[in-house]
């Protein structure tokens, strides 16, 4: 009986599907901060709004997400960020969404952000 269970566990671990974005993650430690004025394709209105809120540059995780979703050679797709607290994930998600929505003639919901806890959702909301 133990042999069958072990064999089943082995097959199950071998057949776990891996999503494409999990196969080739982007290492944000290789990405440098970027001043807003050097960020490619940033809508000028968004640039002004960010500067008015006190932003002058983007953290590496924000630059990496921007390059993957909005910058030259990018494309829209699902995205998952794994990064420590305080590294700028919220803006990394929000900035491309706002950029893409700002260029749409018909503005309707085109993005969904899923958060694991109510506390985090409240933090992101405000």
Automatic annotation (TrEMBL):
InterPro entries: DEAD/DEAH_box_helicase_dom, P-loop_NTPase. Its EC number is 3.6.4.13. GO terms for molecular function: ATP binding; hydrolase activity; RNA binding; RNA helicase activity. It comes from the Eukaryota. Keywords: ATP-binding, Helicase, Hydrolase, Nucleotide-binding, RNA-binding. It is an enzyme of class 3 (hydrolase). It catalyses: ATP + H2O = ADP + phosphate + H(+). Residues 60-124 form the DEAD/DEAH-box helicase domain. PANTHER family: RNA HELICASE. The Q motif is unique to and characteristic of the DEAD box family of RNA helicases and controls ATP binding and hydrolysis. Belongs to the DEAD box helicase family. RNA helicase. This is ATP-dependent RNA helicase.
